[in-house]
Amino acid sequence: MPRSRATMTAMLRAVRMIAALALIATALCPSASAAPEAYTAAPVWGSCSEFFPVGPVRVPTAQCGTVAVPIDYADPDGAKAQLAVIRIPATGQRIGTLVVNPGGPGASAVDTVASMGLALGGSEIGRAFDLVGIDPRGVGHSTPQLRCRTDAEFDAFRTEPMVDYSPGGVAHIEGVLQRFADGCLNRMGPEFLAGVGTATAVRDMDVVREALGESQINYLGFSYGTQLGAVYAARYPDRVRAMVLDGAVDPGLAPIDESLTQSAGFQRAFDRYAADCAKSAGCPLGTDPAQFVARFHQLVDPLVARPAATTDPRGLSYQDAITGTVSGLYSPRFWPYLTSGLLGLQRGTDPGDLLVLADDYQRRDRDGHYRNQQDAFTAIRCVDADFPTDPHAWVEADRRSREAAPFLSYGQFTGFAPRDVCALWPVPATSVVADATSPGPGKVVVVSTTGDPATPYEEGVELARQMDARLITFTGSQHTVVFNGDACVDTAVVEFLLNATPPAPGLRC
């Protein structure tokens, strides 16, 4: 029976307090930007109600403000972006600042730290560190806010099935993607759009570090936040005291290879979900593992021609059914909602839980308003790496993707495929993929989860190798784990952050 949208969305947001839902872009070469390092700015502190107008931040000591940074560091006196910053001061014997980034790219670090302040306020971490969240330029509460489309345009985008891989269908899909890219360019301008990548974000982060009066930072990055941290550590190694990277990406992967690795991770998550579902009578995917994918397609593929009716007048489109499924695979805590939605499709009743999962992933609220996380996600990933423009590269990627993740593949291989929107992006990439480097012995700990669908385990293993970092392996089927309830992981992370004591070699939790 479908859960209420309000209750379910609240639960989803609570679970995602730290680890933001989002797919992970490729990583950057830290040497790509040659901007001079002379720019400084002072924070302008104000009321946290500027960022949280609906209600007060429930941490009374929280300080909120902005730090101005140039749109273009080559023109430091030119137009500025205002980076939103939150700081929750340490309540005990202070060690320093712990900068937190929840990932995305595009998730708000300000919102994350506001939530973490409640969870960690009385902990050893809350006593020892100022908790700091910095919304990268264009993201969250920073201004100008990166927006590529209106709420109505986003709703319309989600009705597109995007599955017709005939020549005409591919042309139509690329037209939809090109209009999205053009909307970004027209609304944000080429200068701002070209400067939203990770190479600039790490420079911004260092400006905030100096504005806060810190000679070094401690850093906790989740998901894409591991990329941001790795690039910062490579560019400013002496300014890192301790860094924890959870749900790590492999910065050496090219864009298509990264996407295929992630697709395979979600297929493994789908297989685990289906096997668990099959333990219960009436599982919509049946009980035969050989038929799980086929049964899934029998339920969702008809939505290409006709969306399913829901209590929400939008109905459930094919794209939303796939997005909702992927959203549900981020953690076993979401599996009951995924099953509920699929049962609705099977029985011809309300599959609305899939729509709620999709709305949460796309950051749409009950009033129909979208946060800008998905627009920022796309704009950042598109300037973070060089995406192939040759259509043949994407045809081969489609062939490999169908092998890696059959549950995500519609129809048969046609020999035609649309290019990624980033191959059509209107501004050039600012960085290229490259391996990470170590900021120094004992400064980095990587945490990787064996069944992480979004940032597969092997990527964390590889990042730890590149950064000469100690690795914590967590056995589980979720995306990120630090400060999410596992005592084994949290004890090791806290000891590292407080005392610079690395976890035991080969630690498994």
From TrEMBL:
Signal sequence residues: 1-34
UniProt entry tagged with the keyword Hydrolase: yes
Gene Ontology MF: a single term: hydrolase activity
AB hydrolase-1 domain: residues covered: 97-485
Keywords from the UniProt entry: Hydrolase, Signal
Listed Pfam families: Abhydrolase_1
Family stated for the protein in its record: Belongs to the peptidase S33 family.
Protein's recorded name: Hydrolase [Mycobacterium leprae TN]
Organism: Mycolicibacterium parafortuitum
